[in-house]
Write a structure and sequence with these properties.
122 residues; 6 helices; membrane; transmembrane; 54% helix; globular; two-stranded antiparallel sheet; transmembrane helix; alpha+beta
Length: 122
């Protein structure tokens, strides 16, 4: 369910901002591609607009949340918090994705081992 909500939030962000204000990125992109996308000035601009009034005295964030939960008369606080957190993390240019960590089992314990940039793109 949480992954589904994250996908809905991201889709709503792209719908609200449109291609001219925010370039699209595939949700399955590599960390390198996502970090490059987050360096785009349009992403930073969208991030700073999240809580600015857009139309009819509504913020971009409210419109995004309403788009995701359009069938609900009232959105629960937990969904609001979850949606805001996803949108902020997704658009925040300072929040870069880290390389994937490989987990190796040794003696029944898991150890995280950093991967190279090439390995994390696979």
């Amino acid at each position: 369910m949480r992954g589904e909500i994250a996908s809905w939030i991201k889709s709503a962000i792209f719908e609200i901002f449109g291609e001219s204000q925010l370039s699209r990125i595939d949700f399955q992109s590599s960390p390198v591609e996502i970090n490059s996308w987050k360096s785009d000035q349009r992403v930073e601009d969208a991030y700073h607009k999240l809580f600015k009034v857009f139309s009819d005295n509504c913020t971009y964030m409210k419109i995004i949340l309403d788009r995701v939960w359009r069938s609900k008369k009232k959105i629960s606080n937990i969904y609001i918090v979850w949606g805001v957190a996803i949108a902020q993390l997704f658009l925040n240019p300072k929040q870069k994705l880290q390389k994937k960590l490989l987990l190796k089992s040794e003696d029944g314990e898991l150890e995280a081992e950093p991967t190279t940039e090439e390995e994390s793109e696979e």
